[in-house]
Amino acid sequence: MDFKLTEEQLRVQQMAREFAEKDLAPGVIERDMNSTFPLDEFNKLGATGIYGLPFDPKVGGQGGSYLSYILAVEEVSKVEASFGIAFSVNTSLFCGSVDLSSASDEIKKKYIAPVAAGKKIGSFALTEPDAGSDAAGQKTVAVQDGDHYIINGSKCFNTNGPFADFTVVYCLTDPALGIKGMAAFIVEKGTPGFRVGKIEDKMGIHSAQVSDMILENVRVPAENMIAKPGEGFKLAMKALDGGRIGVAAQALGIAKGAFRIARDYMLEREQFGKPIAFQQYLQFTMAQLQTEIEAAEGLLYKAAIRKEMGEPYTVPAAMAKLYCSDVAMKVTTQAVQMLGGNGYMREYQVERMMRDAKITQIYEGTNEIQKLVIAGALFRK
């Protein structure tokens, strides 16, 4: 197996790294404290076309490598995980839902192209108060009315929701059918009856904007149905498989960012007459963490390549998301500990990274759900 990145992948990785260090790093602590999202910077990166990197040019994408996109999410997440998840939702969940759907190329291009070019922002509305891991518990309903559908219901934990221009809304066309009646629609910002509800005050990823979305008699053209009744659940699961690779990239970025801070600190901080980097216990701890980071990287890149090659990637995505998020939590917790009292202080960054890491074990399917996915394939007859 060749682990060498291509010229394209290296170029995208370097560009994302330079953007993160130059444009994101200076204000990241302040944004975390104030729960403000760097929208100007998000639009600036989008103007490069990077959000559409893995999609076909015929629908407005760049026709690039999926791994290149994942490398970019990883790089920005080393500096600001909130930016990383906004990026992932925009590309993996919104554009991914549209691209994988049965919608016409005309509809796909209408909604993917402006998001891919950084002119519009997308979000993904699946979760409801009573429908989290059990997506079949949906209560949002779409009723046909001529050449339109009327949607009523509410969604929660919608990343990018407060400022998204387009939202993929999953809902039931017949509650009696459950997931067999699930469909998906694109709802545009400003559509009467479609509004932002409560904006969440979170433990971590403070800068990411996460909210409820309320739908009251929202009238949507039938052509905006991108998954017909009965197709919606399958589409959501396919999109989430891609989203799990994005979250794994976010988690790996967090782990690598915290590890780098800890390593640099250990080389500078002296105790007992020498840098703490030369205390054997800390050296062994860092050696173990570095090994686990590289193992996580292998799982992540394998999942991305499987998707890129058009091969089954549900299980590799679940494995990558499970392992990368666990490693992120472990590395950041250890980084706080190794920095001692300084690790608990905002200015050293790792306390924020620890708070940000926790959510990667929860969204895009909890890690318990990932184990169910992996076990289901393992014991399938």
Beta-strand residue percentage: 15-25%
* Main beta sheet: 4 strands, mixed
Q: Which outline best applies? A: globular
Distance between the termini: 30 Å
CATH architectural category of the largest domain: Up-down Bundle
CATH superfamily of the largest domain: Butyryl-CoA Dehydrogenase, subunit A, domain 3
CATH topology of the largest domain: Butyryl-CoA Dehydrogenase, subunit A, domain 3
Averaged pLDDT: 96
Taken in chain order, the helices and strands follow as HHHHHHEEEEEEEEHEEHHHH
Which residue ranges are poorly predicted, with pLDDT under 50 across at least 5 consecutive positions?
Answer: none
Count structural domains: 3
The level of helicity is 40-55%
- Extended strand count: 10
- How many helical stretches? 11
Cα radius of gyration in angstroms? 21 Å
Strand order across the largest sheet: 1-4-5-8
**CATH secondary-structure class of the largest domain:** Mainly Alpha
- Specify the structural class: alpha+beta
Describe this structure in words.
- With 381 residues, the protein is of the alpha+beta class.
- The protein folds into three domains: 7-121, Acyl-CoA dehydrogenase/oxidase, N-terminal domain (Butyryl-Coa Dehydrogenase, subunit A, domain 1, Orthogonal Bundle); 123-230, Beta Barrel (Butyryl-CoA Dehydrogenase, subunit A, domain 2), CATH 2.40.110; 234-378, Butyryl-CoA Dehydrogenase, subunit A, domain 3.
- It has helices at 7-24, 28-34, 39-46, 66-79, 81-100, 105-116, 232-268, 280-308, 314-338, 350-359, 367-378; strands spanning 122-125, 141-145, 148-159, 166-172, 182-188, 194-199, 210-221, 225-227, 270-271, 274-275.
- β9 and β10 form a beta hairpin.
- It is globular, with a radius of gyration of 21 Å.
- The two termini are 30 Å apart.
- The mean pLDDT is 96.
